[in-house]
Predict the structure.
Amino acid sequence: MGESTDAGTSQPSHDVIRWLEAGRIPAHQALARMRAADEQARARRTIPLEDRTPAAARIVAELDQLVGLQAVKRQVHEIWALVEVQRLRQRAELASEPHTLHMVFSGAPGTGKTTVARILGRLFRVLEVLPKGQLVEVERADLVGEYIGHTAHRTREAVRRALGGVLFVDEAYALARGSDKDFGREAIDTLVKAMEDHKSEFLLILAGYPQEMTAFLHANPGLVSRLPIHLNFPNYTTLELLQIADTMLAEREYRMTAEGRESLLQKLGHSIQFGAGGAGNGRLVRNLVERATRRQAVRLMRQQRELTRTELMTLESSDWEQDG
Amino acid sequence: MRDAVVVGRPRVGKTRFVEALSSYLGRVETSSASLPVEDPLRRGRRGDGVLSPVTVRDRRGRPWLRLVDTAALRDEIPDHAETRRAMAVSLARLQEAAIVFHLLDAAQAGRLSGYRPPLLDLEMRAYGLTRPLYVIIATKSDMPAAAEGVRRIRTRFPEDLLIAVSLPNRRGLREVRRLLLVHAAR
């Protein structure tokens, strides 16, 4: 614009119109002052915080209740805030650009990647970023075919199922394995094309072990620019694993004696220190909990007497010990 | 229902534009609640000086647009209180409108040796651009020198929506109608 600015200080528009009527200012000045008044009124207009979607707050609270994952939670809060503020900016008639929300999840199996992906799908649905929010989980075997054209077809089909929601490609680095003739490359190209063709229609999450994902993305620079959000899922610490065990046991109405708790803590510390399979992830805890409940059942059955409610609930130190 | 307000300086053809467009759109009725505007400068020409909004209905009889004529805005401060009051009402209508048709006299723009829009038109445009839809209507485009006038206006405001209309042969009304159907139905 910039053609003319005679705005001066701004008064409410009705005052300006009254001045025009009283013959105090000419029409062009009245128009300039009305424009300034409107601009100031728009700038002052507040968008109530209650407009933040309550359903979104509930979903994010679920995420916050997960054990550990502090950096992931912080980033999801940032993404949530960004989406909410973009909506408020739209309502305030300010420029708001659609953000690319495709992501890379780096972390070992059992560190919460799928759980967080599912939560994000639901969060983006209530925020109206994604119309459906469903999670479609695939891996290399679901995308890569055996003959020419088969891979593109399978990958497009996976994208089609994920439209409106999240396409979660687990162990995505496996797509780049193999020789030049491997069809994994075709799957990557098809995914890149789908991101262009279906902008804002689905959310792509490529997940896998941190080192492998770094190498995979390094070898595919076209992907990096299209996946601006990187979430790192570190292995859980011993205390976090103990907290996960507490939660799992509480859900199943079990509890540990103090000695039992000590035994589990030692077992978890040992697993992490010696890098036992799945050390530092939630699946290790689930396996330990399931084994302990089986061992408790065997111990109780050997008692050959009536059992109290407390006995049925309690896991002792021996229940956590390794089999012979 | 959205308000489309027609604004402009004196003698650019506002009332004739509203009449022609109303007739072109069909299914219109003049609101019984006339605007309380008495413009003594119009009284001699129109007899009543009252500017009544026109309600446009769709095939099912539902109103979808209110077409609002306004009293002319003038560069100077008028001596007559009734004229100033009419201008005040025009600004109030402009403020409420979702659609602004700003009328510029294309024939006059073409006749002048160097076209420089008056300050009042620049301010009308600046304010109009704050509304959801702002359209320049280049009137009298059938008259001598109007083609040059349209070209000059377009050059001056290259990014604005501009429709050249000629009321005797109804040129441009179809484009106006199309715009209204898209924007007023929202």
Q: What stands out?
A: Residues 61 and 296 of chain A are 34 Å apart (CA to CA). The longest strand of chain A covers residues 203-208.
